Structures are given as C-alpha cells and as structure tokens.
Amino acid sequence: YGELKLDPKHHPFPEQLPEKWTSKTFQQLTAQEHKDFWSYKLTVEILSEATEDEIKDMFIRLNKNTVNLVKQELRHAQYEGDFIKLAEQLAGEYREFFVANKIFTLTNISRMGDIEYTSELLTSLMFGLQNKTDSLDEIYADNETMDEPAKRWAPSRFRAIMKHISEIFGEELATTRFRNKGDFYSLFRVLFELKDEGVTSQE
User: Fold this and answer.
1) I need a labelling partner for 108 at 20 to 30 A (CA). Which of 82, 100, 118, 174 fits?
2) Quick check: 6 and 24 in contact, CB under 8 A?
3) What Å distances lie between residue 125 and 2, 103, 151, 153, CA to CA?
4) Nearest C-alpha neighbor of 180 from the set 94, 93, 102, 87
5) Which residues, 6+ apart, have CB-to-CB distance to 110 below 8 Å?
6) pLDDT one digit per residue (tens) for the chain, 203 residues
7) How far apart (Å, rounded) are the C-alpha atoms in residues 190 and 118?
8) How many helices (H) and strands (E) does the chain have?
9) What phi-psi label fits residue 148: left (phi over 0), alpha (psi between -120 and 50 degrees) or beta?
C-alpha cells in the first residue's frame, strides 16, 4: 500500500474523501492518522460450517445492501460456469481493442463493464436479441455448463466478427459513431447476421 495514492476516482464515495488526503500516500499521513487507521475496528463473522453456496449468497446480499458492487461484480461472485468464464476470456482478449477505440475507459474495465458488455454480445450470438443486461443473470445460470460444440462455435464466431470489424474500420473506429456501445452492439449483430447469410466484406 506504500505507493498507493488516495484519489477520489478510487473511492466508492468520492465526495466523502477529505481534500487533505487527496493524492497522498499512506506514509504521508500523520502519525495520528496512522494510529486511527490501524485502530479501526472491523466486525468479523467466522463461518465454520457454511457451504460455498451459502457464503456466496451472504456475500451477494451484503453487497446489495451496502451498494458497494455493480451488478457484474456481483455476478462474478455468484457464477463460475462455462458461459461467464468464456465472457471473461473474450473480454480479456479484446480489452486493448475496447480501450483503444474508446468504447470503454480503464475505470469502466476496473468495474468489469467490459465483461458485462462482452456477455451481452456473446448472448446475442448464441440466443438472439435479448433485453441486454436484464437477462444476463438468467443466461449465466442456465449456461453454467455449455455443450462442447457451443464452447467451440461461440468464441470462434465472436472472434471472426471482431476481426471483420477491425478489417472494416482499421484504426478509425474511435472516430465514428460505433464507439458508442449501443451502435457497436448493432454493428456486431448486423455483421453476425450477414456472416450467417454468407455475405463477406468483399461482397
């Protein structure tokens, strides 16, 4: 923690961070502030017989009540099946693409926004148009286990569409309306349907 600087953008409630602490490292705080920090009392519950599912459930309910986590962070804690793993893998592969084309900021990514969005794109390929984020919990739950053909087909098709987008726009995507998440989603979906119909970029 020695090099970490206190910054409003890293604080869950930026307006509550005292100005006197902004941009300071822990070592730059006063001796009394160090003492106050180490003296802060935490409430701890020991769960000696709880199952993994029970712990996940308590974690989710705790964070829902304190509004600490966004929906995708809660999903990450709740689901660990094939679909969410695939979404996280693909989001990792295209993270630089999303940032370079200004579709996501590093702050968005730190809160798993790119994983949620990749899940929406992946859902559109596998299950057709959905009510976007409203259906993700159901999609994750229903696809904890994916069959082998789907696990091969879905990422292959996803990568093919992303490659097609790169071929069309090159480095110019960030200057177009398609940097907008809604427009990019529509573009992604249209190219998927065109590829299904056998239409290529040359045609």
Assistant:
1) 82
2) yes
3) 45, 20, 12, 10
4) 102
5) none
6) 456 777 777 676 777 778 888 888 888 888 998 898 889 887 777 767 778 877 777 777 666 665 567 889 888 888 889 999 999 999 999 999 999 999 999 989 988 999 999 999 999 999 887 776 678 999 999 999 999 999 999 999 999 999 999 999 999 999 999 999 999 999 999 999 887 655 544 43
7) 16
8) 10, 0
9) alpha
Is the separation of the CB atoms in 189 and 127 below 8 Å? no
Our measurement of the distance from residue 92's CA atom to the centroid of its chain's CA atoms, rounded to an integer in Å, reads 10
- Those residues whose C-beta lies under 8 Å from the C-beta of residue 77, and which sit 6 or more positions away, are 56, 59, 60, 63, 69
Helices (H), 50-105: 52-66, 71-78, 82-93, 95-100
CA of residue 45 relative to chain centroid, distance: 29
Residue 51: both structure tokens together: 């199952």
As given in the structure block, the two tokens for residue 135 are 């259906």
Give exposure, 77-114, as e/b (b: 16+ Cβ within 10 Å). ebbeebbbebbbebbeebbeebbebebbeeebbeebbb
Taking the C-alpha atoms of residue 77 and residue 139, their distance in angstroms, rounded to an integer, is: 15
